[in-house]
Amino acid sequence: MKQETLLRSLTEFSVGLIFGVGLILSGMTDPGKVIGFLDLFGAWDPSLALVMGGAVMVGIIAFAIARQRTTTFLGHALALPTSTDIDKRLVIGGLAFGVGWGLAGFCPGPALVSLGMGQPKAVAFVVAMLVGMMFYELIDGRPREVVPAIDN
Q1: Which residues form the domain of 129?
Q2: Rounded CA separation 3/60 (Å)
């Protein structure tokens, strides 16, 4: 294994581990806490608003830095999204995401962390999410955009 590939793999693992630990510590892997946050007219739990606000701030700073760069910190090509279109697919996808999040109390990242922690509800969610992704690929009918692999 090349040294660059090893460094890239270790970096990706480290970032994923930090993200997963952050999700656990913030309570995002607890469906009850998430549903409590979404229950605006019942037993509302506003604590996840701080988590989301922090995530938005980190994202704003990260994208501001990324826009000024052409390569990643490891020297690979950096390609940021350029589309600003709000189309039917984006709106329907956002609605589907929100409904799934509200019903299950999981979104994909926390669900995968919860799956790794052995939560039975996460198993059902991840299986349903994968089936939904496969179903979408079957009915979409558009050629998939393939992102070129980074040569190491």
Answers
A1: 3-140
A2: 32
